[in-house]
Design a protein that fits this description.
- The protein is an alpha+beta fold.
- Helix content is 20%, strand content 27%.
- It has helices spanning 12-15, 48-59, 66-72, 80-90, 205-209, 226-235, 263-269, 280-289, 294-299, 384-392, 409-412; strands spanning 91-95, 104-111, 113-117, 126-129, 136-139, 150-156, 159-162, 174-176, 189-195, 198-201, 219-223, 237-241, 247-255, 305-310, 330-332, 343-349, 356-365, 376-382, 394-404.
- It has a six-stranded mixed barrel with strand order 2-18-15-17-16-19. The chain has a six-stranded mixed beta sheet with strand order 4-11-3-12-13-14. Strands 5-7-6-8-10-9 form a six-stranded mixed β-barrel.
- The longest helix has 12 residues, at 48-59.
- The chain is globular, with a radius of gyration of 22 Å.
Amino acid sequence: MFRRLLLLLPLIWLAACSTTSTPPSSVGSGPLSPSALPGWQQQRTGDTLQALLQSCKVLARKSAWQPVCSDASRVAEQDEGQVRQFFEQRFNAWAVQDAGNGNGLITGYYEPLLNGSRTRSARTPWPVYGVPADLLVLDYPPAARGNSVLVARKVAHNRLQWLPGKTQAGSGEIEIHPADFPADNRSGKLKGRLAGNRLLPYYTRAEIAQGKGVASAPVLAWVEDPVELFFLQVQGSGRIQLEDGSFLHLGYAEQNGYNYQSIGKWLVDKGEMTLANASMQGIQAWIKANPGRQQALFDVNPSYVFFKTLPGGDSGPAGALGVPLTGGYSIAVDPRYIPLGTPVFLSTSWPGSAQPLARLVHAQDTGNAIRGAARADLFWGFGSEAGMYAGRMKQNGKLWMLLPKGMTPSMAALP
């Protein structure tokens, strides 16, 4: 999921949010009793049971998870001892490692709040775009990746279908040269626009800022602050408060096909700020001090996210698992190593400090910058306080997967 940038994306500006088999090198010691994990007894269980029940909307489709999910629905959420006991009795813990190293990077993300309007004005001049009508997407399967020329046809809305064996486009068909496109093997998609019968890469952020492509894109809202709009794209979802006090909920719909490039890293590499200051707040301060260089900085990142409106309500945005995220108890992971829906015990520290932070969270999202086994992005929730924590979080940490007793990590990776 870019999908939230998904979807989906944490201190992505620094570190940069389908399940496959879990590589053996990603699993360390286990099985262990959860009670043996560092900080297990001291953790506040908070909303961890509610987060599990959200995951169970998907997990309960698998027979191995059905008894656990059924029992979870009968646990008293307010009784921390009972919640802890439930996980101790029904789960084993498995350490997560990257090539034998159990320490990983833990970042944070959140759901931003912007001020805006349904109509353009001097106060709200910055557009939030939906998906342009001319943006076409081709699923790019591994079998096609050795071909210098592909042929596809449009099958639905903005979707293209590869036609195996063809190298010349016939009537109504589209010719594609994969070498024209930026590499994005993780998404497995090529995203472009038609020029005659040939698919070319879609416009970059800089080109979109100049007005290219957006004539066919619906404007979902207009907002006050271009910097907040940029970080809305980094996070992949958010809310806009309108003049009447109501909220417009936005989620990731599509992206222009370019890999995310970190503007924080660029500022550090150029000597514009130190690594210690390269947080969301630090980047905002730099832009305020250098307003004439704002768009040039944004253009360092060619990736551009298009949104869709979502149903209202107080629940969090939907993650890659397809269920609402729970502030403080949902994480984005690399699903090649940690299957979506898995409870994960997180041992790290609070943003910008050495104060321990240990809690049972749930793998419910993915992110473009979340790569590797011992890598997680903690969803902090909605609003400015959540943004403060997310923007400052770049901590070392350790992860343990919690799996129902009798299930091994290799079994958990099976569909």
